[in-house]
Amino acid sequence: MKLKEGFILRTVGTNHLVVPVGARTVDFRCLITLNETGAFLWQQLQEERTAEQLVAALLEEYEVTPEQAAADVAAFVTKLQEADLLV
Q1: Helices 36-44, 51-61: inter-axial angle, 10-degree rounding
Q2: Distance between CA atoms of residues 54 and 20, nearest Å
Q3: Which end of the chain is more exposed for a tag (fewer CB within 10 A), N or C?
Q4: Beta bridge partners of 32
C-alpha cells in the first residue's frame, strides 16, 4: 500500500497536518491531524509498504509490543482507507 499523490504532511509546532494540494483540493476539503505515530506511519507510506513492514518500522522506532504495533497499524490503515487516501 502507498499514499495517493496530492497530499503533504506539514508540521507546525507540535501539530502534524495532512493537507491536500493541487487538484486534490477540489475533492478533499479538510485537514487531517496526526499524532507523532501517525506522522511516522504517514512518512513510511510515501513508498510502497506492507502492513508487516509498517509494524516492523514501528517496532524499530518506538518501544511498543508487537501486538500494539500491529493494532496501531491496522487502525491507521483503516482510517486511511475510509478517507480514500491509499492507492
Answers
A1: 130
A2: 23
A3: C
A4: 18
